[in-house]
Amino acid sequence: MTTPEQSLLSDRFSQKEYEERKHQQRSLYVRNWLNSIFIVISALAMIGVVVFSDSEIGTMACYCLALLAVVVKMVEVMIRMSGFKRNSYDTRRNHTA
Q: Is this prediction's pTM over 0.85?
C-alpha cells in the first residue's frame, strides 16, 4: 500500500540520489584530470632536474615546476576530502534516522 506522500518521498529520495551520483561522477572526472596534470608536471620536473643539473637557473625552474605539481595535487586532495566529509555526514545522518 503506497500513499501519495510515500510516493512523493520516494521520488525526492531517488532524485537526491541521482544528483549525488552526478556530483560524484563530475568530481571524479575533475580529479582524474588533475591527477593526469600532476603526473605530467612531476615527470617534467624530474627530467628537468637531471637535464639542467649544470644550470642553476634551469634547476631552480624545475624546482618551481615541482612546486606547481604539488599545488595541483593539493587541489585534487581537497576535492577528494570534501567528498569524504559529505559521505561521512550522510552516513551518520542515515544511521540516526
A: no
